[in-house]
Design brief:
single chain, 5 helices, about 25% strand, globular, alpha+beta
């Protein structure tokens, strides 16, 4: 059995799927792209493969598309590994994992993840150009300060 950790603390996980709605207050939030691209399937919601993380102090959810959640947890759950969280108010429903490989990823698919991120970025630029410009300016300022 693999060992999963969140910032060095051992955790238990369940593979789940989450129905998530668009985050109106955060137009660039990652799952808005999911909602937009799945509208024909799920209506105003997206179905996202996720992990229920059972930490000794709390229970929370992180996305596991392309195995990104598992990748973070098997590497200690530290900030240097990416993850995608959910706003509690945007979760419509959580249901147990079916066991289907497409949803129940146990390995990280870096190429699939990179392709997904490139498509999401294009979608953001097309639909929210002003917000992307502001985010890029902020990111640039932060990077300059670190240098």
């Amino acid at each position: 059995m693999k060992k999963y950790e969140w910032q060095g603390v051992p955790v238990k996980i369940d593979h789940v799927n989450i129905y998530v709605k668009e985050s109106k207050k955060s137009p660039l939030y990652w799952y808005n792209y999911e909602v937009a691209t799945q509208q024909d399937i799920a209506g105003d919601y997206a179905i996202v493969p996720a992990l229920r993380v059972k930490h000794p102090e709390s229970v929370f959810y992180i996305a596991n598309h392309f195995g990104i959640g598992i990748h973070k947890l098997i590497n200690g759950g530290w900030p240097n590994y990416n993850h995608f969280s959910f706003h509690k108010d945007d979760i419509k429903n959580v249901f147990e994992e079916s066991g289907d490989y497409v949803w129940n990823r146990k390995n990280f698919d870096l190429i699939g993840y990179q392709e997904y991120e490139a498509e999401r970025r294009k979608w953001q630029k097309k639909n929210f150009p002003k917000e992307v410009e502001e985010m890029d300016a902020l990111r640039s300022t932060i990077i300059k300060r670190k240098s």
